[in-house]
Amino acid sequence: MQIPDSIQIHDLRFVPLISEDEIQDRVRVLGQELTDRYRGKNPLFISILSGAFVFASDLIRAFDSHCEVGFVKLASYTGTRSSGDVQTVMGLDKDLRGRHLVVVEDIVDTGRTLHFFLEHLRAQQPASICTITVLRKPEAAQFPVPVDYVGFDIEDKFVVGYGLDYDGLGRNVAGIWQLLK
Ligand code: 5GP
Q: Which of 82, 84, 96, 160 has the greatest number of C-beta atoms within 10 Å?
């Protein structure tokens, strides 16, 4: 399929950053690493909604052993900038005590979301917690959060696609696209 030079979403233009093929290759490797680490341990993958649902869906199918999946909805973003406020909107309905947790994020920007959520999880005494994200912006880091597995480190620019949106649109776009500026 021919990939366009740029795409328009609302008032902004985006250019290709990471292709769908590159993402899928990376997801296969990450899935294998998690399989080696958690085989036979029935880990609980916790996908942070909404952005991580596409990655989580690929990742659990690249995980070659039994696992469970849960979802949590947190909110911290409006438009292209963090609102600075993190809230749990929809919680998990599972008992986490003694479980091996794999927290699945779409992108770690300031680290605020993950920092807040990890505190919440640790309080529930799981057996272990690991974190995995498709994208990380090292230059934007403000919170010291442990990220065990990273798909790609990227520049501190706004991106869409592969589950990530710009004011509601772009989640279904294949690959990752960066704001043209
Ligand atoms: P943090 O709490 O690490 O600052 O931000 C994490 C959340 O902000 C991500 O889960 C994502 O929803 C949103 N976010 C951060 N950077 C971007 C970006 O470049 N594009 C989009 N679409 N969302 C982002």
A: 160
Span 92-104, average pLDDT: 93
Mark whether 93 is an active-site residue.
Answer: no
Task: Of 99, 164, 171, give the one whose Cα is nearest residue 137.
Answer: 164
Whether the pTM exceeds 0.90: the reply is: yes
The CATH number given to 19-72+95-157 is: 3.40.50.2020
Angle at 115 between CA 109 and CA 117, to 5 degrees: 110
Q: From CA 106, how far away is CA 50, in angstroms rounded?
A: 9
Report pLDDT digits (tens) over 16-31: 999 999 999 999 999 9
Residue from 106, 165, 171 to probe ligand 1 pocket by mutation (most atoms less than 8 Å from CB): 106
**Annotated active-site residue in 25, 36, 64, 109:** 109
